[in-house]
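Entry 12.
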Amino acid sequence: MAILVTGSAGFIGFHLAKKLLSDGKEVVGLDNLNNYYDPNLKKSRLEILNRFDNFTFWKKDLCDFPALESVFKKHEISKVCNLAAQAGVRYSLINPFAYQKSNMEGFLNIIEISKRSGVENFVYASSSSVYGNNKKLPFSVKDNVDYPISLYAASKKSNELIAYTYSHLYNLPCTGLRFFTVYGPYGRPDMALFIFTKRIIEGKPIDVYNYGKMRRDFTYIDDIVSGVISALNKPFKYEIFNLGNHKSEDLMDFIHLIEDYIGKKAIINFLPIQPGDVPETFADIKDTQEKLGFFPETNIKEGIKKFLDWYKNYYNVN
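Predicted 3D structure (tokens):
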């Protein structure tokens, strides 16, 4: 019996699949390898996964229902982890239909086929973005999340609602995971750590929004993978969990750590907060600890160093 990981050439999907494969699990990977960011990075991740004999990859799109059906017919899939999605808050402001296709139509396709195939557990990526402008900190899964402030966040909230419906109607076990600012080696080039590192090394200015008055719950990739695997191993009728570090870090401190490791000062271009952005994220992980045994271990200093070591090696930076 195999575990299907959609978005397996993506950042979190790659690390999850690699861990599962290393643990001897049969993994079926699915990704459309789109060009939202450098496809070569996705191909590099995929090259690593293809070294495992227990890995099978399909280049398919979630929006292609017959193609998805064909994958389920070829493999005995017991669990699904749906990580494939159009990511990014800011990109949703300029290309809304990418989110409608991948995050709504694509999500409905994969959960419907999972229901028809009788999978044991359906785990999917949600996002801390669903909390919108909630003022109460830390963000709890018990908080109201009816006021998203970006289409990306709205699409993730819609996933949670669809999953609830499928759990209620068809007894499909569904667990949604609200990820909080995931970072680490092989990370996405559109995220802050990657952008800041690249531009500081190149001696180019970095854009810092809300004049630097931002705080984020940065969560290292290995901790995220640990939480996802716990969710895959513990089916619930319907649950949502925060996967965060339970520590809100000042963005300027984050930048100073990057500067320290690189040995070079950033040229900072301070700007107002952007539409769709929130000034702070902070995960309440009490439920996650109690029900999933999730205890993140990597602090921000260790995590940034691991990313920078990877970045320098991958891009041959002296």
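Annotation: The two ends are 45 Å apart (CA to CA). The chain has one domain: 2-183+219-246+278-296.
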